[in-house]
Structure prediction request, 871 residues.
Amino acid sequence: MVVPLVEMRGITKVFPGVVANDGVNLSVQAGEIHALLGENGAGKSTLMSILTGLYRPDGGEIYIDGQRANFRSPRDAIAAGIGMVHQHFRLVAPFTVTENVALGLKGGLKLNLNKLAGEIAALSKEYGLQVDPQARIWQLSVGEQQRVEIIKLLYRHARVLILDEPTAVLTPQEARDLYQTLKKMAARGCAVIFITHKLQEVMDAADTITILRGGKTVATVKKSETNEKELARMMVGREILWQVNKPAPRKGDKVLEIKDLKALNDKGLPALRGINLAVYAGEILGIAGVAGNGQRELAEVIAGLRPSQGGTITVAGQELGQCDPCRVINAGVGYIPEDRLGMGLVPNLGAVDNLLLKEYRHPRWGKILLNRRAARQWARELVERFQVKMAGLDAPVKMMSGGNLQRLLLAREISTRPRLLVAVYPARGLDVGATETVHRLLLEQRAAGTAILLISEDLEELFRLADRIAVMYEGEIMGLVATEEASVEEVGLMMAGAKRMEVSA
Amino acid sequence: MVGSSLPGPAPAPLFTWEKRLEPSRVMAVIVPVIAVILALGVGAIFLAATGFNPLKVYQSMLYGVIGSKYGLSETVVKAIPLMLAGLGVSVAFRMLLWNIGAEGQFYMGAFGASFVALTFPNLPAYIMLPAMFVAGIAMGGLWAVLPALPKARWGVNEVITTLMLNYVAILWVDYQVYGPWKDPKGFNFPLTAPFSKAAILPTIAGTRIHLGLIFALLAAIMLTIILWRTRWGYEIRVIGESPRAARYAGIKIERNIILVMLLSGALAGLAGMSEVAGITHRLQHGISPGYGYTAIIIAWLAKLHPATIILVSFLFSGLIVGGYSVQTSGVPAATVSMLQGAILFFVLGGEILTRYRLHFGRKEGK
Prediction:
């Protein structure tokens, strides 16, 4: 048999209290696209951090081209031809593409940027990675930035390319382009490893699949010899229900009405260019779109965290004034922000304090003094009802897993019985089990008559949950379709801005 | 090609750092203790280099503090302003407001109290002292609200504004004691006339320990209750931990910036008031030997915890008193400042140990 390009044997990595990798084996041939599939916490990232020299394994061996390798730092891994595209790009925004590629290159003091730009252009042509070497990073779309990251690795002659959830930020069309690029690289003798927990992605792009669960290797299979169902079972360890039983919507009164809403993004550029939307009690309105097309700004304006530049937002007949989160909360709006730990929760405080975040003003906790004992009791009940697992009610919540954090956040937002729930990427980064829980809770709220605005970039999620789907592109609604009548292709085209429908909101 | 450049077995590094999953509690206690020892070590090298016997110097410093009733009581006396000012800066720090202006707020508190005492010398004690108390915290609070307003409105960096207002306050007091308020019978020294009897805080018999100690202890208790038992304290803690989450929850950050700075300055102002009413019994040039700055170190070392601030204040006042007692044998006065700085230096440096684990020369391929 051919010697694999990368072989990891019996890799073990122990963190205090957690065995992140427990005798993991991974073998990747040159010329193949290898998916590393597993839920969050399965040990995928730890394994790749070991391969890229960020962590040192507590046990096990790494062979590159059959030769024993001992990476003491990321520098050693790069020298061995291993490169990684992280989920959060490592690019310097004010620099040009060429300057970013030049960063960290070895060599003398002299830097011939023009020569470099030429080489970049040649590389990008060869691999179908369209990008202007002179463009500055901040001017590029997320998809283009990802291409820059890949070019960086190609320029350094990386033979092993690792991508961490590469399609999370892409449109279906952009994802397809990426797969083409990956195939070209594999054809030229590289090995491509990509980390994912999306089955669709695996079936679309991978040749071989290694499944991790609980820090152990479950199996390595050829794509041609498996199917989605089998993969899902190996990943989760049990059968999962893909079909959600969704009763027909009981559409009630109009809860949220947005008229001609305009707002700026953080850079002061228009992010919302006249949005019109309405959400009714008992329905889920999904907002599809590639991240960065105004979805975050839309949610923030509704939540009162971002000033609007024009237009109105009305909740249950009551107009929300200018940028006042307190008023929005009192109007009965729950908000699940995209950044759980950065905005929705206070990382260093415990569960009690975090559950109180929107509740502490309520007079039942006392006017000046907070009745800690009552609050604790109430928090304990919520934690039990929503099955949040944690070390203790006072342990900093940053220690909790993503799924439990989201349960805690949902527990708080749902327990106030909101009229309107704005959920932004509620299942992002969650494993299959936790995603299931989040989806179940959202559907329960829908059945209870809450109006839900669900912003997501996961089309599968939207098609499963939403009653209607609106597509946002560059701050505008490109179209609004009833989910039963929508097709993924159509929505995908609107996400890419290639198609526009007449909207009669 | 690349294979030949693969890193083979190489000498293991002397040590490596690894991030801890959570900060170590053990280290959080050990680090400050080791830091104090290391700081004393550095001080010893300095003393030895300048021709003193460090052991003897430290011994007589210690004796100066705990060797006599006077030393002990002076340690308490010096700890009072440190506690109050330290509590003051700690509450601002907790909200990530870097109030470097405790020194100026101390001076303005002393000024406010002195204004009352000098303008209405005939008030009875039961009106005089409360009036001085109020004037002290009002002036200290005002001096902190001054930089808080532009901070809340436009985000003006409070480090710069609070620091600069220190000089304004010190020079303002200097102007008074060199000018309009100078004691005509004071042989041209920069000090005011002594306060009337009614304007003097009661003391423990035979010592200079005054009522300010009670103020400081009550302030520590009050702060503990505010921070962990009230709605306002909850807001302060949330803002301090995550301003974004606070905004998300509808907490008014701007209003809290002003209120917290008011409280912070009021406590430093109270320190100034109790110093003039308890110790000097008049306003004078250089009323604080940098209590407001030492308070910053104390608050930081105490991790902003009120009860710990009380304890650490005793450590630092002991250093000051010990420093005074060895000055007579020719040890420079700056030695104490140097020790203070060295302690802070080592504590901050040692904090990496609470967040990272150190591995010494680990074996490979195990």
About this structure: The longest helix of chain B spans residues 125-154. Residues 97-288 of chain B form one domain. Confidence is low (pLDDT under 50) at residues 1-11, 362-366 of chain B. Chain B touches chain A at residues 2-3, 5-10, 13, 16, 20-22, 228-232, 234, 237-238, 241-242, 244-245, 247-250, 252, 364-366 (CB under 8 Å).
